[in-house]
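The methods section describes the discrete structure representation at length, but only in general terms. What matters is that the chain and its backbone geometry are given together, residue for residue. Nothing conveys this as quickly as seeing an actual entry. For illustration, here is how one protein appears when written out as sequence plus structure tokens:
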Amino acid sequence: MKKSEKTNVMRLFDKNHITYESHFYTDTGAVSGPEVAAALNENPEQVFKTLVTVGKTGQHYVFVVPVNKELDLKKAADAVSEKKIEMIKAKELLPLTGYVHGGCSPVGMKKLFPTVIDTSSAQQNTIMVSGGKIGCQVEVSLQELKKVIPFQLAELTT
């Protein structure tokens, strides 16, 4: 992917005058979150992954957690007042969000789902989330991110 190529996430940020920085990591073979953080030479506590879930009620939720941590499904369910939460199946991701596995961003999904970001994000000046494509991350402050997606903070990891 060329650095000049804009993703939907970047176009949405530009349209809303959001201050962000894009980072690219092509040809590294990085797939997992920690590999992406290493490819970008960034602290894994600043690089976040986007996880899409479904609650017992059938409502979908988006959780954003550091790449070096795991989502605690019980804490996630508590955060959104659900009895139970489970990860959606990989094949459901693209039709539901418009994103592929490894390139899923909390910004610019087909539909706006309730979004919860791990409280550890508040300790960072900026966080990195997927730019909407494998090989691209965007770095943004929580204050700027709040301008394009409503979210709450909660403790989500084990």
Remarks:
- The chain has a mean pLDDT of 94.
- The longest strand covers residues 48-55.
- The two ends are 34 Å apart (CA to CA).
- Strands lie at 21-24, 48-55, 60-66, 85-87, 115-118, 127-130, 136-140, 152-154.
